[in-house]
Predict the structure.
Amino acid sequence: MNESAQAADPVLAERRDGVLILTLNRPDRLNAWNTALENRYFELLDEAEADPAVKVIVVTGAGRGFCAGADMDDLELASTDGDLRTASIEDRTLPRSFPRTIRKPMIAAINGAAAGLGLVEALYCDIRFATPTAKLTAAFVRRGLIAEYGISWILPRVVGTGAALDLLLSGRVVLGEEAHRMGLVDRLLPAEELLEGTVAYAQDLAQNCSPTSMAVIKGQVQRHLDVSFEVAVEDSEGLLLESFERDDVVEGVNSYLEKRPPAFPALTPRPAPRDRSPA
């Protein structure tokens, strides 16, 4: 891709061994979310889900921000055009929460502002790395909006009910250091080390962890948030028996005993193209 075409692409894709780096690419608007960016992002995620060479996905933003939320021009139009508001929801070919259905680990590298919808996208990832000065805010209440796209479900499970209500009701900005203390982000890295440090973590997963095991574990954690401990144990016991039927266990044990890197089989494709439930 030439430089002009790359600059026009709303999401950039870069491969590093088994890691796919997706960069939201509207730096002049702090990567504000619009339809073109959403469609391209979802398209690349869909391709990554189906590609056995992709083991882990890293999501970051170009320039100074991660994602500043919905593009304000689009938001202004939607606030005055009821037909546009309805169409923006009903015309989607994939649900807004599509990133949560990806079976492969997704890691957000939050390099700057993650506001509103941008924070939602970071929360749709499984793990979040950030710089100490990254700015995170729910922001919705300060735009006359509500807690959008499931953040009212995710955020309390990440930081607890009180902290979630603090962030949602105030719409205040928290910097990376406070976000790390409350558990909103999982690791802090200096700005100059953020992407490389996140990719290094992702490459360790890609090189040393079973893709099938990671997919199953993602599904377990998502499902078990809303069931009793007893149900989670019963489900896990069935999944454990299934794991012994796969070649991954043999390879995991043999590679450990032989002191060599594992060569795990690729993640089996989904049985149906539109089946988006987690493994």
Observations:
- The domain at 209-279 is CATH 1.10.12.10 (Lyase 2-enoyl-coa Hydratase; Chain  A, domain 2).
- The CA atoms of residues 32 and 177 lie 23 Å apart.
- Residues 273-279 have pLDDT under 50 and may be disordered.
- The chain has two domains: 3-206, 209-279.
